Amino acid sequence: MNHINRNNYESFFLLYTDNELSVAEKKLVDEFVFTNPDLQEELVMLQQSILKPDLIVFEDKKSLLRNELINP
Fold first, then answer.
1. Does 1 or 13 have the greater pLDDT score?
2. ∠ at Cα 42 (40, 46), nearest 5°?
3. pLDDT of 58
4. What string of DSSP letters covers 7-47?
5. Which DSSP letter does residue 59 get?
6. What is the pLDDT of residue 15?
7. Cβ atoms of 9 and 35 closer than 8 Å
8. CA distances for 64 relative to 41, 54, 58, 59, 60, angstroms
9. Rounded to whole angstroms, how far apart are CA atoms 51 and 40?
10. Tens of pLDDT along 7-64?
11. Cβ contact 18:47 at 8 Å
12. Largest Cα–Cα separation, the chain
């Protein structure tokens, strides 16, 4: 992937959003969006769609262990 245009920009936008592009490829996307400002909103919407996991801490891990003996 080294050339971005209006026929393939969606793939670049998804990879950009998922942080799967090299620094050089990210620069290509930034330049493409600069020269095609009508697509900037689409990129921003993709970036806003990222879900971040909640930090969940389970304090009583020992309660998950089985207390009874297993007979073979």
1. 13
2. 115
3. 87
4. TTHHHHHHHHHTT-S-HHHHHHHHHHHHH-GGGHHHHHHHH
5. S
6. 96
7. no
8. 47, 21, 10, 11, 8
9. 20
10. 999 999 999 999 999 999 999 999 999 999 999 999 999 999 988 888 988 888 888 8
11. no
12. 71
CA distance 25 to 20: 9
61 SS3 class: helix
How many Cβ atoms from other residues are within 10 Å of residue 69's Cβ? 5
Torsion from C-alpha of 5, 7, 8, 9, nearest 10 degrees: 60
Look up residue 46 and give its amino acid.
L
> What is the number of residues in the chain?
72
Q: Which two tokens stand for residue 16?
A: 């950009």
